[in-house]
Amino acid sequence: MITTFKGQYAWLSNFKRCEVFFRGAAYTSSEHAYMSAKSECPDWKAFCQDGGNSPGRVKAMSRRIAVRPDWNEVKVGVMREVLRDKFSREPFRSYLLDTGNCHLEEGNRWGDQFWGVDLKTGEGQNHLGRLLMEVRDELYLAGQPRLLVPILRWLRAAQRRYFPY
Ligand SMILES: Nc1c(N[C@@H]2O[C@H](COP(=O)(O)O)[C@@H](O)[C@H]2O)[nH]c(=O)[nH]c1=O
Fold first, then answer.
1. 31, 37, 45, 51: which has the fewest Cβ within 10 Å?
2. Is the CB of residue 4 less than 8 Å from the CB of residue 108?
3. Using a 6 Å CB cutoff, which residues line ligand 1?
4. Whole-structure pTM value
5. What is the pLDDT of residues 44-71, one digit of tens each?
6. Distance CA 43, CA 76 (A)
7. Are 18 and 28 in contact (CB under 8 A)?
């Protein structure tokens, strides 16, 4: 199991600098790309596209803008789109596939129980880890014979549930 996105697994974190193309623009991390979707304001888009702003700064500034009203309904879809792009490119694609079928969890100490799991309480929905496993399944299944895809998808999910490693 990978239970924190630090150290040798820091590349799983959205704060890891990488190239991401999202809805017609280039970003320098998946955090920048994800945060850009919080508002359609051109100044906000430009701020997120400026690689001179750290992922932490972009996240902090996103608390001060007028976020689109339906953000909570669309944010998981936005994150999925961003992660698909990040992991479509090397070396991240191979790094993710090389984790095999192990459980991924964003254990954190900043109290995020939506995207990760709070290490102090053990509580959290782990949407980031779940999306990463979903993207990894897509990459893995894309290389398999089409007829086997439904059964392989089921087997991978069952293995993660009953034999997490
Ligand atoms: N605070 C933090 C991370 N939190 C990141 O913030 C994003 C969620 O933002 P929001 O939807 O506004 O709550 C999501 O990408 C999550 O992984 N990540 C990291 O690597 N290091 C950090 O210190």
1. 51
2. yes
3. 13-15, 31, 34, 59, 62, 75, 106, 110, 112, 115, 128
4. 0.95
5. 999 999 999 999 999 999 999 999 999 9
6. 23
7. yes
Closest CA to 54 of 74, 75, 35: 35
Q: What top-level class would CATH report for the domain 7-162?
A: mainly alpha
Say how many Å lie between the CA of residue 113 and the centre of ligand 1.
11
Length reported for the chain: 165
- Find all residues with CB under 8 Å of 94, minimum gap 6, and list them: none
What is the enclosing helix (H) or strand (E) of 17? strand 17-22
Give the chain's end-to-end CA distance (angstroms, integer): 5
- Tokens in use for 127? 């949407």
- As for the ipTM of the complex, it is 0.93
